Amino acid sequence: MNKQTLLFRGPVKSRSGYGSHSRDLLEALYQMDIYDIKIDSCLWGNTPMNALEKDNKFHKWIVENSVSEFNGLPDIYVQVTVPNEFQRYGKFNIGITAGIETTLAPKDWIDGCNRMDLIIATSNFSKDVLLTTVYDEKEKNSDKLVKQHRIEKPIEVLFEGVDTNIYNNVINPSFELDIKEDFAYLFVGHWLKGNIGQDRKDVGMLIKTFAETFKDKTECPALILKTSSAVFSVIERELFRKKIKDILIGINNPPPIYLLFGDLTNNEMNDLYNHPKIKSMVSITKGEGFGRPLLEFTMTGKPVIASNWSGHKDFLSMESSVMIGGSLTEVDDSAVDNFILKGSKWFTANYDEFSQVLILVKEQYDKFLNRSEVLRIENSNKFSLSKMKEVFASLIQSKVMVPTKVNLILPKLNKVYDKI
Question: Is the pLDDT of residue 408 over 60?
């Protein structure tokens, strides 16, 4: 029997969150071995396109099956991007997205989702925001309601699985971390646009709160920032160094803050997570569609401190993590773009509470370590890559129904995407 044809489009070759998720989904389809798969690997902003490894069998398969043209109409079309880019290029069309970080999705995201036959989001938070976003269309003169634009297609949730063969609690004694402090908090994530206190990951206030908390103290912990905006360059590194110094102006005798800048492999990231001096991961993010580094770090069994809002709540609980309270605040103009909308809201942490938690975790570390070990075991079972592949295979086989007649436009491949 001939296999159904499947065209997969996503930033498969890029070093980005969407790139990692694309490869995981594609590998699940590859291992199912029931589809004839072709791949259109698109760009993803300015992120590097060097994620594929030469000696990796699956990555070699990706290269061999990548296409710049696709003749005919695929039975199944899978697109892993932001929803405004979703198009109907197959007989059955699946749009997969990490979703949204605020309380409101753009109108063109709603339209994009409605072009597909099935939507898959990475978290219950993303699904809920997509489903509750409604745009009223009214007559210009009478203000009479003409139509409400909302998502009308089914949405399922599929988490981003963590590869426990890579991310685990194994310490690599040869991995060096050149800091003198024995207790360090780690932040991992992009430092994006926005004034201090207004960038999406809230990196600026993370630094400021940490510095204010431990200033003028002896034997204080360190903060390590593994961050970038998209690319790794000397210019960007120096820009981040200046931003950190500017935040620390006026804070006397601040604690040690290190910028860890550059590209690390997955194995090196796990070595960093498990280094004996790294005691906890911290994030007071304003919103996550999922929060992949947070899940990866839970595999170490060390405590995670994070905002009590958005996508990562699927795998971080109040009982086994340290969840910081706060409130929903309107997105600042300095952070607004085509995806983060003016008038929408996201989370602002209670910085005083965060400060107290930083001290508490350090003083009562063993207590929090015991709780996080429970989370490690739970997440390694529920949120592993192998479990994700199993759920995805079941989902796609149960939901995909290929119609016999279609009249659709063929794809123009290799579009450049702007979202990071």
Answer: no
